[in-house]
């Protein structure tokens, strides 16, 4: 099947780099569920602590960090993730700084992903009614810069090699989450992948006012994307194969 990820036989490790708890559940959790079903090792790297995402004035930032970490770990269990790494930068203030880039490079060298998924570094003003979150662009920019060239060059962030003994690593493919015109790859998904991804989404109780509605919306969106390739469900990405 040509529309299938044609590298799946040799690939077995993936990493998802996002800004906040729940970003991956909205953007790529069907693909993550599929990889876990196929026996891949999948790791999430969360750049921020999620400390700003509430309207509830009775919850402190510190409480929210704990709540959202617990929710993200629960979602990870529903999907079958190998691990969830929290870099801990403050929510809402993320910049694609060298510190963030080095921290993501460290995780890439540690986990050696074949495929890395992240959010788009670009604000898409033509795509939808959603203007986008600055942390998502920053996480995407830092992740792409970590993939190329920081994680693969031994002379960049040399402390990773000399102090932490982390060898350079070349990522095979990057998939940027995309629902707009720039998508060039639709990953076909099965019913079970969708069910597990929705269960993961529903773990983010503090972020979703109506879990049933959210789950149904997500299922419909993935069904519409699947239709574009003759599959029951799909998620779309801008995919890059790196040499
Ligand atoms: Zn987010």
**Gap between N and C termini:** 23 Å
Q: Order the strands across the largest sheet as they lie in space.
A: 3-2-1-4-5-7-6
Mean pLDDT: 94
Largest sheet: 7 strands, mixed
Question: What order do the SSEs take from the amino end to the carboxyl end, as H and E?
Answer: EHHEHEHEHHEEHHE
Radius of gyration of CA atoms, rounded to a whole number: 17 Å
Bound compounds, each kind once, are: zinc ion
- Overall shape: it is globular
Counted by DSSP, the helix tally is 8
Briefly summarize what is shown.
With 243 residues, the chain is α/β, with parallel strands linked by helices.
Question: Which characteristics define this entry?
Answer:
binds zinc ion, 7 strands, 7-stranded mixed β-sheet, about 20% strand, disordered N terminus, about 240 residues, single chain, alpha/beta
Textual characterization of the structure:
The chain is built from eight helices and seven strands; from the N terminus they run E-H-H-E-H-E-H-E-H-H-E-E-H-H-E. With about 240 residues, the chain is α/β, with parallel strands linked by helices. The N terminus is likely disordered. The site of zinc ion has 5 residues, from loops. Zinc ion binds next to loops.
């Amino acid at each position: 099947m040509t529309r299938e990820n044609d590298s799946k036989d040799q690939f077995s490790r993936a990493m998802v780099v996002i800004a906040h708890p729940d970003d991956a559940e909205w953007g790529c959790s069907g693909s993550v569920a599929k990889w876990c079903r196929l026996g891949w090792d999948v790791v999430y790297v969360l750049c921020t602590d999620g400390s700003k995402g509430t309207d509830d004035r009775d919850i402190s930032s510190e409480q929210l960090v704990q709540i959202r970490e617990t929710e993200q770990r629960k979602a990870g269990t529903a999907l079958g993730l190998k691990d969830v790494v929290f870099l801990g930068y403050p929510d809402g203030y993320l910049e694609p700084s060298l510190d963030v880039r080095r921290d993501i490079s460290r995780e890439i060298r540690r986990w050696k992903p074949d495929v890395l998924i992240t959010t788009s570094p670009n604000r898409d003003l033509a795509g939808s009614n959603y203007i986008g979150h600055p942390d998502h662009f920053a996480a995407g920019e830092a992740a792409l810069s970590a993939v190329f060239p920081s994680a693969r060059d031994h002379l960049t962030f040399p402390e990773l090699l000399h102090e932490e003994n982390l060898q350079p690593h070349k990522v095979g493919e990057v998939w940027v989450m995309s629902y707009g015109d720039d998508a060039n790859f639709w990953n076909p998904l099965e019913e079970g992948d969708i069910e597990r991804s929705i269960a993961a989404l529903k773990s983010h109780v503090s972020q979703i006012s109506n879990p049933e509605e959210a789950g149904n919306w997500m299922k419909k969106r993935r069904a519409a994307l699947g239709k574009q390739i003759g599959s029951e469900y799909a998620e779309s990405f801008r995919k890059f194969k790196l040499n």
